[in-house]
Structures are given as structure tokens and as C-alpha cells.
Amino acid sequence: MKGSLIILGFFTAGLLLSFYKIIPGDLIKEEYSSYALYFLMFLVGVGVGADAKAFQALKGFNLCILLVPFTTILGTAIGVTIVYLIIPDLSLKDAQAVGSGYGYYSLSSIIITETYSKSLGVVALLANVMREIITLLAAPLIALYFGKIAPICSGGATSMDTTLPIITKASGKEYAIVSLFHGIVLTILVPIIVSLILSLG
Amino acid sequence: MVLGIIVGYFIRNRRLLVKINDKLIMWAIYLLLFILGLSIGANEVIMKNLPTLGLKALALTLGGVIGSISLAWLTYVRFFKSKE
Question: What ipTM was predicted for this assembly?
Fold first, then answer.
């Protein structure tokens, strides 16, 4: 949670600085930030590849474990579709793109901002930070009422790092590997799914 | 990103490099979101609609979380509970 608050802090600082015209908002050219994004994607790849636990988790899996990321992806898609039906002024594509961040706020919001729309990027940032915070606060309750897989699915891509401790506490140590595996799969899939949704019609 | 995974696999035994990589990711994210903040702050249309955007975000989060934990309950009961 500390990490996500620091990130929101950087975002808010930038927002206030340019809103009050202390720093001009067009100081940094768009191209630079796309290069920064490519660089970030590369670094994230290095992080996944260098994580010894990631490969161990993949070796120890059985077929059921594959169902968990699938559950999160399908469940989120259904949930945001219902939100799309209720809320006016929100396209299905926008709803799915935001949902497909699965809590990975930094990468999903940056991809959406760079390749699609700034205002949807802001929605994605806020929505996915909220997903992490809700999971951190409610994991024990979620495990109690929806079973031990549920906090993992609620955490989305964060189930491999920031929300892993609380998930392990709520669901038990035997679910730590499931949580880790789930988080790794979603972390890899977020940039792919978000770009795919944005490139559709 | 695939290139990154391959590089990461080969440097996985060099603790220091991996640590530097984690720090770099953190600062790259800080920088990009700071830049996002800068360009949003300068955008009057978005600033005017910030509360609406926040509400949309909250609705989408709740939808996503409730959708996935409901389905997770089904997956748990059907595939995991019996093995405990």
C-alpha cells in the first residue's frame, strides 16, 4: 500500500505543478514518454525473467492452478460489462481496457495514456490503485465469504507482490504458490490484453 | 518485454544487477506517472471532469472485484475445496 501511495503522490505532484502552471505541462514531449514506456516494459521483462521463484512456481503447477488466472480474467470481464450496462457515458471498450489492468495500475494506465486517451488513463490509474487497496483491506473478509481463491482473484496482478502477504494470511500458506503463479501470469498478460482491447475497433 | 525476460533469465544469478533493475523499474514508473500528472494538470477538460472520472473508476473497480470474486467462489467450490 505504501508503494501505491507513493505512486499516487508522484502523479498528484505532477498534476498540481502543471495545474498551477509552476511547470508547463508540455515540457516533456510525447515521444520521450513512449520511449520511457518501452524501456519500462523491457525492465519489467527483466524482473520476471530474473525471478527464480517465477520459474519454480511454473514447474510445480497442476491443471487446476491454470483456472485461477482464467477465473480472474473472465470474472473481471463480466463485472465491468455489468458496470458498462449500468453507467451512462462509458463505452464497452473503455470499460474492458480499464478492467484488464487487474490492479497493475502503473503499466495499464501508462499504456492507455500513450496509445489511446489521457482521460481513460487517469480512470485506469485510479481504478487499479483502488483494486489493490480494496484487496489489502478486505482480503480476510473476501476469503471468509467467497472462498480461498477469491482474495487472489481480487488482487489480480498484484497477487505476486504487494497483496501476497495479506492473501497468504487470509487463505493460508498452501495458497501462496497459487497466488504467485496467478500474479505472474496476469502481469505478463496485462500489456498484451490491454493493447489488444485498445486495438479493436 | 520478451527480450527483457530472456535477459533477466541470464542475469538471474547476479543479485546486484537484479536489485538495480528493481530500483530502475520503480523510478521509471515514478517518472512516467509524474509526466502523466503534468500533462493531465495542463488539460482543462480532464481537470474539470476529475470527480466524474474518479466515480467511473470506483464503479469499474467494484464491478471487476465483485465479478472476479463471485466466479472465484465457483472455481473454489468446484475444483479446490475437495482437495483440502
Answer: 0.80
